[in-house]
Every structure is written in C-alpha cells, then in structure tokens.
C-alpha cells in the first residue's frame, strides 16, 4: 500500500493544474525626484538599473525627472527611489499643449518645468462649458414659452 499511495500522489501532483503566474506589463513610470548633483543622479540611476525587469532608465536632472521603462511595478519603483534617501513622487505634470485650460486655478504651477503644467482631474477644473455651468439651464428657460413666469416683454 505504501508504494501505491506514493505513486498515486505523484500522478495527482502532475495532473493538477498549477495557478498561472501573472506577468507584469511593459510600462513607463515617470517620477519626480529631488536631485542636486551628479552623485544624486548616479545614486538614483544605479538603484533603478539594479531592479529586476527594468530595461531603460533616463534621468533629467534639470527637470528633476526620472523615466523608467520595463516590466516593473510603479509602487516598487517609487519605493526603491525613496530607499535611496531622495524625496520622490509620481510625475505630477502634463505637457502644456495637452491641457484644455492651462491657466485655471489648480492647473498652473510656477514650480513646474518649462512646457509643463500640473495634471489635475478634468472634473475638478472649471470650464466655461454649458455642461459645467449650473446657471445655463436657468438662462435658457428664462425666455421659454413653456415657463409661466417667463419674461412677458417678448
């Protein structure tokens, strides 16, 4: 019985499906990292190139921007950069020409690099569209024939 149970356990182990590993997608992670000198730049670059799955690392010290491409998790990249002792966050800016109104209240940022503005959720920014204007309906129904309180001058 001992040999039979051992043989059946091997067969069961070979025939049971194993859970498939979920592979990470190739993605680009952009970070804003405070770097002062070439030593800081080198320290961040070496920490990121040693990560598993990283294919390229580009550092722009002038804009305090680090771009990492590869099969990586953005949270792990951010954690690795913070582990070097540098302050880091996900890149908070968009190119200037991609923003609908770049000078609205929460979008324009004086600290942003040239050609960039802060990326904000489009529902938070105020656009002069009729969809976002709560008074637009009041203006259109003011002179309506269906409104009994409409202006009688017309």
SSE layout and pairings?
Blueprint: H1 2-15, E1 27-33, H2 38-49, E2 54-60, E3 65-70, H3 74-83, E4 88-90, E5 93-95, E6 116-118, H4 136-142
Antiparallel strand pairs: 1-3, 1-4, 2-3, 5-6
What do these coordinates show?
The chain is α+β, with helices and mostly antiparallel strands and 154 residues long. The chain has helices at residues 2-15, 38-49, 74-83, 136-142, and strands at residues 27-33, 54-60, 65-70, 88-90, 93-95, 116-118. The protein has a four-stranded antiparallel sheet with strand order 2-3-1-4, with helices on one face. A two-stranded antiparallel sheet has the order 5-6. The protein starts with a helix and ends in a 12-residue tail after the last helix.
List keywords for this structure.
alpha+beta, 4 helices, single chain, four-stranded antiparallel beta sheet, two-stranded antiparallel ribbon
Unreliably modeled segments: none
How many individual β-strands? 6
Computed CA radius of gyration, to the nearest angstrom: 28 Å
Approximate strand percentage: 15-25%
Euclidean distance between termini CA atoms: 102 Å
* Residue-averaged pLDDT: 77
Strand arrangement in the largest pleated sheet = 2-3-1-4
Give the helix/strand class.
Answer: alpha+beta
One letter per element, helices H and strands E, the order comes to HEHEEHEEEH
Helical element count? 4
State the helicity in percent bands: 25-40%
Shape: flat
Largest sheet: 4 strands, antiparallel
């Amino acid at each position: 019985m001992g040999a039979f149970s051992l043989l059946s356990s091997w067969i069961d182990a070979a025939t049971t499906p194993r859970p498939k590993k979920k592979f990470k997608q190739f993605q680009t992670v952009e970070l804003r990292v405070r770097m002062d000198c070439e030593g800081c730049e080198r320290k961040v670059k070496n920490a990121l190139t040693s990560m598993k799955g990283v294919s390229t690392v580009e550092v722009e010290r002038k804009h305090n921007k680090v771009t990492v491409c590869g099969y990586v998790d953005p949270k792990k990249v951010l954690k690795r950069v913070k582990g070097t002792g540098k302050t880091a966050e996900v890149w908070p800016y968009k190119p200037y020409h991609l923003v609908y109104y770049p000078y609205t209240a929460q979008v324009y940022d004086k600290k942003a690099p040239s050609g960039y503005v802060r990326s904000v959720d489009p529902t938070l920014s105020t656009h002069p569209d009729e969809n976002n204007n709560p008074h637009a309906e009041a203006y259109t129904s003011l002179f309506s024939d269906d409104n009994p309180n409409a202006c009688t001058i017309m």
